Amino acid sequence: MLDLVQKIKDFKMTRRSFIGWTSAAAATAAIPVSRGLVAKAETGIGTEDKNGEGIWKAAACWHNCGGRCVNKVLVQDGVVVRQKTDDTHPDSPDFPQQRGCLRGRSQRHQVFGADRLKYPMKRKNWAVGGGKKELRGKDKWVRISWAEALDIVSSEITRISKKYGNEALWATGSGQITKVLSLNGGCTTDYGTTSWGAWYWAPTMMGVAEGWTDLGINDRIDLRNSQLIVLWGENPAWSSPGSPTYNFMQAKKAGARFISIDPSYTESARTFKADWVPVRPGTDHALALGIMNALLDEDDPITNPLIDWDFLYRCTVGFDASHMPEGADPKENVKDYLLGTYDNLPKTPEWASEICGVEPIRIRELARQIGSTNRVALLTGWGPARINDGEGWVQAFSTLGMMTGHMGRSGSMTGVSCHRAAGNGGPWLVKAGNDGYLSVKNPVTNMLNHNEIFTAVLDGKFHQKGEGERKANIQLIYHQFNATLQTRGAIQMGIEAHRKVEFVVSHAYVLTTNAKYSDVVLPVTTEWETEGGMLQGNREMYIVYSNVIAPLYEAKSDVQIAKELTEKLGLDSKLLYPISEKQAFFNKLATSKVIAANGVDYEPLVTITTGDIKEWGVMGTPQQGRIGLKELIEQGVYQVPRKPGDNFGFIAYKSFVENPESNPLSTPSGKFEIHCKTIHEESKGGWTVIDPIPKYVPKTKGFEDTFENWEKKKKGDYPFQVYNPHYLRRSHSTFDNVQQLREAWPNPVFINMSDGKRLGIKEGDTVLLYNEYGKTLRPAHLTETMTPGVIALPHGAWVQLDEKEEVDKAGADNMLTGPIATGLGTSGWNTAVCNMKKWDGEPLIEDVKWDQRIIKF
Question: Percentage of the chain with pLDDT > 70?
């Protein structure tokens, strides 16, 4: 141990920082004493710790939860020994600090983990053409040099593209490599609705915001004016850590009542003391229709006004036969559909209850509360729309808000409230600039929908949206900045697909699922090891981070890898990257904008001097901005101060609702289209045809599919619904390898107490979940806070496949989801059915006690 400590000191690393980095045992395996851990990181950045213990630097919390809070780290001898969060200004409800959650605060364990990938590596049994492809995911790893790694990757790209054509190259997700392959003749890409679900395409066709580029809810300060806040499938306490929960608490203090409509009693429901309405996954559509039917039944414009007829007539088309869009069949209106005028099936609360599980009396209560309360915030997350056949839910939810007039007014709003806009809608008050990198058009037009990526590999065909079937012959998979194999549907099928193709390569900083099933893995830096960058959080702030530590081991940035690969392919990397990464970072800062005092115009964010340009060693022009460059870098965030009545507030759709004729929407009618021909026509080029109004259809792999015989209510082979809540151990799949988070959040499967009792499952028992797509194991957590017949399997656990038993031990949610494409191409991860039973094999040990994925050569 003393020899090891001396070696560490030789590389300017104190024993104190070494112990703070990781455990001594793990570090023994992890420290690259042959090369030296600490190269010289960026100097002159950061502030001295008041106790003289190091330098505080602004660091990125780069994970995609939507919070992206302020994260600061204490660097000592090239190692982060401590973290803290936002302390840039005093905290207040109007001007809150952007505080990090447990995930962001655990990042030093992520960056300095003993499982960091140290060197480029290849599978032992890889050979040109694939070698023993069946060993992907099981093979041993061999350390190789960067020169050999890039030679292998470039030669396989060249060989496969010459043999099969560039369509055979599939670059997954998005990233720098797509640009490289586009320059080299092109590649197949993929696309889908990811987090949005059916909110991705459908709402914009109706004139409604999708919740990311455009926001359909009011800002956080106006949220305090709401009298009733309905959280429909929204749990910001878990899904959007950081300021959103704090913002909702201010609305609670201002007097708002809360209702939570969700399959489980969430942490948000508990925090806000919400009335809980348990609903089955994927049946929110039926519930919304039942509420709207009850509104029609009980509304009286004089004695009991529940429906905003003025709003419907002025701002929408398609609700009744007298207000249809041009050319539409008058019978195809929502009112007659709700009443069952033509199909003889009124969408009553009783009808809805049979599907969604909410008692009819409760559905009527919801109708009265939403319809009779003057200022209601109808807020939904993307989760309820991550379902098969989900477009109808988006139509129904939006129609409910229009029917009650909860749009375009202070305290009244209807729309998506999640990720960066959880409880805080509105356009960016701070906008990041451009990095100055170039792009090139991809000559290959093949685009695989996320629901078909693995079937395209295995079956050799896919549906090109808007066109029809195309052939596919994927022979190379290049994983760049993503977790495709982990976070897309049908993992078991995905593993089979990875074992079919001739070559798989991944960029990774730890052995992710993508990397585990690859032939070659290229170690990449984390954001702490880059030159720096900017991250968008909520609308009021932008986070800036700079280099925290030098790249560990032999890790390289994605841009550096892309440059070197471009050159290996015989191309000029300057066609894509004419400038350095530091210049690109500077460019982004220099071109960033911030809202002006008038709330309309934008002005430069950063003041840049001649001295700054000289010190950075970059090209640039001095400018006057809101904050100095050095101050911004050291502070790590610029946040626009807010207060009630300022010029930065936002009421969604306000101008349109006040004067639809003068402020038309971008729909054919210029109004909200409850009857939406655009959705209907667009779906004809998709997978299943969508009605122009929100007609209910049973969701594929939804509640109705848990029955063998729906009419007789006889359950089938897979009687349980399973959905995938976001979980505080992870941000999607990121952080699942961090031991401290594994200890704090053990990742059980959540089961209703009555279901567990009926099946003889006790708390902590290992449970097998299975269906036709795969099998997975988890310890059971029995609770009364789950809807009976529903299982909650947290999203994002890294698959750990026992190939002998053909079962995943980690609770990977996508072991149970299928390659199902519906509607416009929505991914339906929250519509899955399964069975469960007590596992009769070896019980699971706690995740925190599992061996880490540490590669030893």
Answer: 95
